[in-house]
Amino acid sequence: MENIPFKQIVDKFGTPLYVYHGEHIEKQYGKLKNAFENIDSRIHYAMKANENIEILKIIKNLGGGIDAVSANEVDRALGVGFKPEDIVFTPSCASVNEIVYALDKKVNVHIGAIEYFPLLGNKLKGKKVGLRINPGVSIGGNQKIATSHSDSKFGIPVIFLEKVKEYQKEFGFVVNSLHVHAGSNISNVEDLKNSIDNFFKYTTIFTDLEYLDVGSGLKIKYKEDDKEIDLKSYAAHIKSKLEEYKLDLKIKIEPGKFLVGNSGYLVTTVNIIKQGYKKTFAGLNSGFNHLIRPMYYEAYHEIVNISNPGGKLKKYDIVGQLCEEDTFAYDRMLNELRIGDIVIIKSAGAYAASMAMDYNLRAKPKEIQFKNGKLYLM
Q1: For the purposes of burial, counting CB atoms within 10 Å of the CB of 295, is it exposed (0-12), middle (13-18) or buried (19 or more)?
Q2: pLDDT tens, 304-354?
Q3: Kindly report the CA angle at 178 between 32 and 45, in degrees rounded to 5?
Q4: Alpha helices in 275-341 (DSSP H)
Q5: Contact between residue 234 and residue 35 where contact means Cβ atoms under 8 Å apart
Q6: Based on the number of CB atoms within 10 Å of its own CB, is 3 exposed (0-12), middle (13-18) or buried (19 or more)?
Protein backbone atom coordinates (compact mmCIF):
# COMPACT_ATOMS: atom_id res chain seq x y z
CA MET A 1 0.00 0.00 0.00
CA GLU A 2 2.53 2.47 -1.32
CA ASN A 3 4.84 2.14 1.72
CA ILE A 4 2.56 4.19 3.96
CA PRO A 5 3.50 3.68 7.66
CA PHE A 6 -0.05 2.97 8.81
CA LYS A 7 0.89 1.64 12.27
CA GLN A 8 2.99 4.73 12.94
CA ILE A 9 0.10 6.93 11.80
CA VAL A 10 -2.37 5.10 14.04
CA ASP A 11 -0.02 5.34 17.03
CA LYS A 12 0.16 9.09 16.50
CA PHE A 13 -3.40 9.99 15.48
CA GLY A 14 -5.62 7.05 16.46
CA THR A 15 -8.53 5.80 14.33
CA PRO A 16 -10.69 6.24 12.37
CA LEU A 17 -8.59 8.22 9.90
CA TYR A 18 -8.48 9.09 6.24
CA VAL A 19 -4.93 8.77 4.91
CA TYR A 20 -3.97 10.12 1.48
CA HIS A 21 -0.84 9.45 -0.55
CA GLY A 22 0.01 12.78 -2.21
CA GLU A 23 2.42 11.28 -4.72
CA HIS A 24 -0.28 8.93 -6.02
CA ILE A 25 -2.36 11.97 -6.99
CA GLU A 26 0.63 13.42 -8.84
CA LYS A 27 1.19 10.10 -10.61
CA GLN A 28 -2.42 9.87 -11.77
CA TYR A 29 -2.37 13.47 -12.98
CA GLY A 30 0.79 12.80 -14.97
CA LYS A 31 -0.67 9.65 -16.49
CA LEU A 32 -3.71 11.55 -17.76
CA LYS A 33 -1.70 14.53 -18.96
CA ASN A 34 0.65 12.27 -20.90
CA ALA A 35 -2.26 10.46 -22.56
CA PHE A 36 -3.64 13.79 -23.84
CA GLU A 37 -0.28 15.31 -24.77
CA ASN A 38 -1.18 15.48 -28.48
CA ILE A 39 -4.34 17.51 -27.83
CA ASP A 40 -4.71 21.10 -26.64
CA SER A 41 -6.26 20.10 -23.34
CA ARG A 42 -6.48 20.89 -19.65
CA ILE A 43 -7.34 18.83 -16.61
CA HIS A 44 -9.98 20.31 -14.28
CA TYR A 45 -10.16 18.36 -11.03
CA ALA A 46 -13.75 17.54 -9.99
CA MET A 47 -13.34 18.78 -6.45
CA LYS A 48 -16.60 17.25 -5.23
CA ALA A 49 -14.60 14.00 -5.09
CA ASN A 50 -12.50 15.43 -2.26
CA GLU A 51 -12.47 19.14 -1.50
CA ASN A 52 -9.64 19.09 1.05
CA ILE A 53 -7.56 22.25 0.64
CA GLU A 54 -4.25 20.37 0.63
CA ILE A 55 -5.45 18.21 -2.28
CA LEU A 56 -6.54 21.34 -4.15
CA LYS A 57 -3.06 22.75 -3.62
CA ILE A 58 -1.52 19.65 -5.20
CA ILE A 59 -3.74 20.10 -8.26
CA LYS A 60 -2.89 23.80 -8.48
CA ASN A 61 0.85 23.11 -8.25
CA LEU A 62 0.51 20.60 -11.10
CA GLY A 63 -1.08 23.27 -13.31
CA GLY A 64 -4.60 21.90 -13.23
CA GLY A 65 -7.93 23.69 -13.01
CA ILE A 66 -11.09 23.00 -11.05
CA ASP A 67 -14.54 21.65 -11.82
CA ALA A 68 -16.90 23.10 -9.18
CA VAL A 69 -20.58 22.35 -8.62
CA SER A 70 -21.52 24.85 -5.91
CA ALA A 71 -20.79 28.46 -5.02
CA ASN A 72 -18.97 27.27 -1.91
CA GLU A 73 -16.69 25.12 -4.06
CA VAL A 74 -16.02 28.13 -6.30
CA ASP A 75 -15.10 30.18 -3.23
CA ARG A 76 -12.79 27.49 -1.89
CA ALA A 77 -11.02 27.16 -5.23
CA LEU A 78 -10.57 30.92 -5.50
CA GLY A 79 -9.31 31.00 -1.92
CA VAL A 80 -6.65 28.41 -2.70
CA GLY A 81 -5.43 30.63 -5.54
CA PHE A 82 -7.11 29.32 -8.67
CA LYS A 83 -8.01 32.13 -11.08
CA PRO A 84 -11.60 32.49 -12.32
CA GLU A 85 -10.58 31.24 -15.77
CA ASP A 86 -9.19 28.08 -14.11
CA ILE A 87 -12.65 27.13 -12.82
CA VAL A 88 -15.61 25.58 -14.61
CA PHE A 89 -18.89 25.74 -12.69
CA THR A 90 -21.40 23.04 -13.60
CA PRO A 91 -24.17 22.99 -10.99
CA SER A 92 -27.19 20.71 -10.98
CA CYS A 93 -30.56 22.33 -10.24
CA ALA A 94 -28.88 25.15 -8.30
CA SER A 95 -30.62 28.42 -7.49
CA VAL A 96 -30.59 31.27 -9.99
CA ASN A 97 -28.75 33.37 -7.40
CA GLU A 98 -25.95 30.82 -7.30
CA ILE A 99 -25.52 30.98 -11.06
CA VAL A 100 -25.55 34.78 -11.01
CA TYR A 101 -22.90 34.64 -8.28
CA ALA A 102 -20.67 32.45 -10.47
CA LEU A 103 -21.19 34.72 -13.48
CA ASP A 104 -20.21 37.71 -11.35
CA LYS A 105 -17.07 35.86 -10.23
CA LYS A 106 -16.25 35.43 -13.95
CA VAL A 107 -15.74 31.67 -13.76
CA ASN A 108 -16.73 29.47 -16.71
CA VAL A 109 -20.42 28.67 -16.17
CA HIS A 110 -22.10 25.61 -17.71
CA ILE A 111 -25.90 25.81 -17.80
CA GLY A 112 -27.69 22.49 -17.39
CA ALA A 113 -31.35 23.45 -17.97
CA ILE A 114 -32.95 25.71 -20.55
CA GLU A 115 -35.36 26.94 -17.88
CA TYR A 116 -32.53 29.08 -16.46
CA PHE A 117 -32.30 31.32 -19.53
CA PRO A 118 -35.56 33.26 -19.10
CA LEU A 119 -34.94 33.40 -15.34
CA LEU A 120 -31.50 34.90 -15.86
CA GLY A 121 -32.75 37.09 -18.70
CA ASN A 122 -30.72 40.27 -19.29
CA LYS A 123 -28.14 39.23 -16.69
CA LEU A 124 -26.76 37.09 -19.51
CA LYS A 125 -26.30 39.97 -21.94
CA GLY A 126 -22.77 39.93 -23.34
CA LYS A 127 -21.82 36.87 -21.26
CA LYS A 128 -20.20 33.66 -22.45
CA VAL A 129 -21.75 30.48 -21.09
CA GLY A 130 -21.39 26.78 -21.72
CA LEU A 131 -24.09 24.17 -22.04
CA ARG A 132 -24.11 20.86 -20.25
CA ILE A 133 -26.02 18.66 -22.63
CA ASN A 134 -27.77 15.34 -22.12
CA PRO A 135 -27.76 13.24 -25.29
CA GLY A 136 -30.25 10.78 -23.78
CA VAL A 137 -27.97 7.80 -24.31
CA SER A 138 -27.30 5.20 -21.64
CA ILE A 139 -23.94 3.46 -21.50
CA GLY A 140 -24.93 0.92 -18.88
CA GLY A 141 -23.49 0.40 -15.41
CA ASN A 142 -24.87 1.61 -12.10
CA GLN A 143 -27.69 4.04 -12.88
CA LYS A 144 -26.94 6.01 -9.70
CA ILE A 145 -23.74 7.20 -11.37
CA ALA A 146 -24.97 7.32 -14.99
CA THR A 147 -25.76 10.90 -15.99
CA SER A 148 -26.49 11.13 -19.72
CA HIS A 149 -29.50 8.83 -20.14
CA SER A 150 -33.00 10.06 -20.89
CA ASP A 151 -34.21 9.72 -17.27
CA SER A 152 -31.31 11.63 -15.75
CA LYS A 153 -31.75 15.06 -14.15
CA PHE A 154 -28.40 16.18 -15.56
CA GLY A 155 -27.90 18.38 -18.59
CA ILE A 156 -30.07 19.97 -21.27
CA PRO A 157 -31.85 17.37 -23.41
CA VAL A 158 -30.49 17.80 -26.93
CA ILE A 159 -34.03 18.18 -28.28
CA PHE A 160 -34.00 21.68 -26.71
CA LEU A 161 -30.77 22.99 -28.25
CA GLU A 162 -32.57 24.92 -30.98
CA LYS A 163 -34.56 26.64 -28.23
CA VAL A 164 -31.25 27.71 -26.66
CA LYS A 165 -30.42 29.49 -29.92
CA GLU A 166 -33.68 31.41 -29.64
CA TYR A 167 -32.73 32.47 -26.13
CA GLN A 168 -29.33 33.56 -27.42
CA LYS A 169 -30.99 36.01 -29.76
CA GLU A 170 -33.42 37.19 -27.09
CA PHE A 171 -30.92 37.73 -24.27
CA GLY A 172 -27.65 38.37 -26.13
CA PHE A 173 -25.33 35.73 -24.71
CA VAL A 174 -22.75 33.54 -26.45
CA VAL A 175 -22.52 29.76 -26.17
CA ASN A 176 -18.78 29.20 -26.01
CA SER A 177 -18.63 25.57 -24.88
CA LEU A 178 -20.43 22.26 -24.74
CA HIS A 179 -20.08 19.78 -21.92
CA VAL A 180 -21.12 16.15 -21.58
CA HIS A 181 -20.48 13.70 -18.75
CA ALA A 182 -21.67 10.16 -19.38
CA GLY A 183 -21.29 8.89 -15.83
CA SER A 184 -18.75 7.51 -13.39
CA ASN A 185 -16.45 4.49 -13.27
CA ILE A 186 -16.91 3.63 -16.95
CA SER A 187 -14.99 0.42 -17.57
CA ASN A 188 -15.14 0.09 -21.35
CA VAL A 189 -13.24 2.59 -23.49
CA GLU A 190 -15.60 1.83 -26.39
CA ASP A 191 -18.48 3.22 -24.31
CA LEU A 192 -16.54 6.43 -23.83
CA LYS A 193 -15.73 6.61 -27.54
CA ASN A 194 -19.39 6.11 -28.45
CA SER A 195 -20.31 8.90 -26.05
CA ILE A 196 -17.77 11.18 -27.76
CA ASP A 197 -19.12 10.26 -31.22
CA ASN A 198 -22.59 11.25 -30.12
CA PHE A 199 -21.34 14.42 -28.39
CA PHE A 200 -19.52 15.78 -31.43
CA LYS A 201 -22.70 15.73 -33.53
CA TYR A 202 -23.93 18.74 -31.56
CA THR A 203 -20.83 20.85 -32.12
CA THR A 204 -22.25 21.91 -35.51
CA ILE A 205 -25.18 23.76 -33.88
CA PHE A 206 -23.14 26.54 -32.25
CA THR A 207 -20.61 28.65 -34.13
CA ASP A 208 -18.72 30.40 -31.29
CA LEU A 209 -17.34 27.41 -29.42
CA GLU A 210 -13.98 27.83 -27.68
CA TYR A 211 -13.72 24.51 -25.87
CA LEU A 212 -15.39 21.15 -25.36
CA ASP A 213 -15.68 19.58 -21.92
CA VAL A 214 -15.76 15.79 -22.11
CA GLY A 215 -16.31 15.22 -18.38
CA SER A 216 -14.59 12.13 -17.05
CA GLY A 217 -16.02 8.87 -15.71
CA LEU A 218 -12.62 7.19 -15.98
CA LYS A 219 -12.53 3.89 -14.10
CA ILE A 220 -10.07 3.16 -11.34
CA LYS A 221 -9.02 -0.24 -10.05
CA TYR A 222 -10.98 -1.43 -7.04
CA LYS A 223 -9.67 -4.98 -7.35
CA GLU A 224 -6.21 -6.15 -8.30
CA ASP A 225 -7.47 -7.73 -11.53
CA ASP A 226 -9.61 -4.75 -12.60
CA LYS A 227 -8.68 -3.22 -15.92
CA GLU A 228 -8.15 0.51 -16.31
CA ILE A 229 -9.36 2.57 -19.25
CA ASP A 230 -6.99 2.77 -22.23
CA LEU A 231 -6.36 6.50 -21.90
CA LYS A 232 -4.20 6.87 -24.99
CA SER A 233 -6.81 5.17 -27.16
CA TYR A 234 -9.50 7.44 -25.71
CA ALA A 235 -7.43 10.58 -26.28
CA ALA A 236 -6.58 9.50 -29.83
CA HIS A 237 -10.27 9.05 -30.55
CA ILE A 238 -11.07 12.57 -29.34
CA LYS A 239 -8.25 13.91 -31.52
CA SER A 240 -9.67 12.08 -34.53
CA LYS A 241 -13.11 13.61 -33.93
CA LEU A 242 -11.62 17.10 -33.72
CA GLU A 243 -9.96 16.49 -37.07
CA GLU A 244 -13.08 14.94 -38.60
CA TYR A 245 -15.20 17.97 -37.63
CA LYS A 246 -12.36 20.40 -38.47
CA LEU A 247 -12.49 21.92 -35.00
CA ASP A 248 -9.64 23.86 -33.42
CA LEU A 249 -10.96 23.71 -29.85
CA LYS A 250 -9.48 23.12 -26.43
CA ILE A 251 -10.55 19.96 -24.62
CA LYS A 252 -11.30 20.03 -20.91
CA ILE A 253 -11.31 16.83 -18.84
CA GLU A 254 -12.90 16.64 -15.37
CA PRO A 255 -11.46 13.69 -13.43
CA GLY A 256 -12.23 13.36 -9.75
CA LYS A 257 -12.09 9.77 -8.61
CA PHE A 258 -9.44 8.98 -11.23
CA LEU A 259 -7.02 11.41 -9.57
CA VAL A 260 -7.72 10.84 -5.89
CA GLY A 261 -9.74 7.62 -5.46
CA ASN A 262 -6.89 5.19 -4.96
CA SER A 263 -4.77 7.74 -3.12
CA GLY A 264 -6.95 7.36 -0.05
CA TYR A 265 -7.47 4.83 2.73
CA LEU A 266 -10.01 4.69 5.55
CA VAL A 267 -8.08 3.37 8.57
CA THR A 268 -10.24 1.77 11.25
CA THR A 269 -10.06 -0.43 14.33
CA VAL A 270 -12.09 -3.56 15.10
CA ASN A 271 -14.49 -2.83 17.97
CA ILE A 272 -16.06 -6.27 18.28
CA ILE A 273 -16.29 -9.69 16.67
CA LYS A 274 -19.90 -10.80 16.92
CA GLN A 275 -21.39 -14.20 16.11
CA GLY A 276 -24.85 -14.16 14.51
CA TYR A 277 -27.14 -17.07 13.64
CA LYS A 278 -25.17 -17.87 10.52
CA LYS A 279 -22.72 -15.01 10.01
CA THR A 280 -19.74 -13.60 11.82
CA PHE A 281 -19.74 -9.81 12.03
CA ALA A 282 -16.65 -7.67 12.42
CA GLY A 283 -17.73 -4.31 13.81
CA LEU A 284 -15.43 -1.39 13.00
CA ASN A 285 -15.21 2.03 14.65
CA SER A 286 -16.54 3.60 11.47
CA GLY A 287 -19.65 3.40 9.33
CA PHE A 288 -21.40 4.73 6.25
CA ASN A 289 -21.05 8.17 7.82
CA HIS A 290 -17.39 7.89 6.79
CA LEU A 291 -17.71 5.86 3.58
CA ILE A 292 -21.19 5.72 2.10
CA ARG A 293 -20.31 4.16 -1.25
CA PRO A 294 -20.79 0.48 -0.31
CA MET A 295 -24.30 1.15 1.03
CA TYR A 296 -25.39 3.74 -1.52
CA TYR A 297 -23.75 2.43 -4.69
CA GLU A 298 -23.16 -1.19 -3.66
CA ALA A 299 -19.53 -0.39 -4.39
CA TYR A 300 -16.71 -2.86 -3.76
CA HIS A 301 -13.76 -1.70 -1.65
CA GLU A 302 -10.82 -3.93 -0.85
CA ILE A 303 -10.39 -4.47 2.90
CA VAL A 304 -7.13 -5.50 4.58
CA ASN A 305 -6.25 -6.56 8.12
CA ILE A 306 -2.75 -5.17 8.60
CA SER A 307 -2.51 -6.38 12.22
CA ASN A 308 -2.72 -10.08 11.37
CA PRO A 309 -1.55 -10.51 7.76
CA GLY A 310 -0.61 -14.16 8.28
CA GLY A 311 -3.79 -15.12 10.07
CA LYS A 312 -6.10 -17.88 8.91
CA LEU A 313 -8.66 -16.75 6.34
CA LYS A 314 -12.17 -16.44 7.73
CA LYS A 315 -15.45 -15.12 6.36
CA TYR A 316 -16.96 -11.94 7.79
CA ASP A 317 -19.57 -9.33 7.19
CA ILE A 318 -17.67 -6.08 7.78
CA VAL A 319 -20.05 -3.67 9.48
CA GLY A 320 -20.00 -0.25 11.08
CA GLN A 321 -21.06 1.10 14.48
CA LEU A 322 -24.06 3.15 13.37
CA CYS A 323 -27.56 2.38 14.53
CA GLU A 324 -28.52 1.40 10.97
CA GLU A 325 -27.89 -1.45 8.59
CA ASP A 326 -24.36 -0.35 7.98
CA THR A 327 -22.27 -2.81 5.97
CA PHE A 328 -18.97 -2.27 4.16
CA ALA A 329 -18.76 -5.84 2.78
CA TYR A 330 -20.69 -9.09 2.87
CA ASP A 331 -19.11 -12.56 3.14
CA ARG A 332 -15.58 -11.18 2.79
CA MET A 333 -12.65 -13.54 3.31
CA LEU A 334 -10.04 -11.83 5.50
CA ASN A 335 -7.13 -12.83 7.69
CA GLU A 336 -8.61 -13.57 11.11
CA LEU A 337 -9.86 -10.41 12.77
CA ARG A 338 -9.48 -9.69 16.47
CA ILE A 339 -10.63 -6.84 18.69
CA GLY A 340 -8.17 -3.98 18.29
CA ASP A 341 -6.87 -5.03 14.87
CA ILE A 342 -6.24 -2.23 12.38
CA VAL A 343 -8.39 -2.67 9.29
CA ILE A 344 -7.85 -0.59 6.16
CA ILE A 345 -10.51 0.07 3.56
CA LYS A 346 -8.88 0.99 0.28
CA SER A 347 -9.92 3.35 -2.55
CA ALA A 348 -11.30 5.87 -0.05
CA GLY A 349 -9.77 9.01 -1.54
CA ALA A 350 -12.91 10.03 -3.43
CA TYR A 351 -16.49 10.42 -2.23
CA ALA A 352 -15.57 9.35 1.28
CA ALA A 353 -14.57 12.41 3.34
CA SER A 354 -16.50 14.69 0.97
CA MET A 355 -19.73 12.76 1.65
CA ALA A 356 -19.06 12.15 5.35
CA MET A 357 -21.47 13.22 8.07
CA ASP A 358 -21.81 13.30 11.85
CA TYR A 359 -24.69 10.82 11.98
CA ASN A 360 -25.35 9.40 15.48
CA LEU A 361 -23.13 12.30 16.61
CA ARG A 362 -20.10 10.28 15.59
CA ALA A 363 -17.41 12.66 14.45
CA LYS A 364 -15.77 12.67 11.04
CA PRO A 365 -12.25 11.23 10.94
CA LYS A 366 -9.13 13.35 10.76
CA GLU A 367 -7.40 13.55 7.40
CA ILE A 368 -3.68 12.81 7.06
CA GLN A 369 -1.46 13.26 4.02
CA PHE A 370 1.64 11.14 3.47
CA LYS A 371 3.93 12.80 0.94
CA ASN A 372 7.66 12.62 0.32
CA GLY A 373 8.07 10.43 3.38
CA LYS A 374 6.40 12.90 5.75
CA LEU A 375 3.04 13.03 7.53
CA TYR A 376 0.80 16.10 7.47
CA LEU A 377 -2.42 16.67 9.39
CA MET A 378 -4.72 18.21 6.80
Answers
A1: middle
A2: 999 999 999 999 999 999 999 999 999 999 999 999 999 999 999 999 999
A3: 35
A4: 293-297
A5: yes
A6: exposed
Most distant CA atoms of the chain, gap in Å: 71
Domains of the chain by residue range = 6-18+263-377, 38-260
Q: Could you tell me which of 86, 70, 48 has the C-alpha nearest to residue 78? A: 86
- Mind listing the pLDDT tens digit for each residue in 21-56? 999 999 999 999 999 999 999 999 999 999 999 999
What are 177's strand-pairing partners?
Answer: 130, 211
- How high does pLDDT run on average in the chain? 94
**For residues 31 and 14, what is the distance between their CA atoms, to the nearest angstrom?**
33
CATH architecture of 6-18+263-377: Beta Barrel (2.40)
CATH architecture entry for 38-260: Alpha-Beta Barrel (3.20)
Residue 110 has pLDDT above 90, yes or no: yes
Strands 374-377 and 366-371: antiparallel
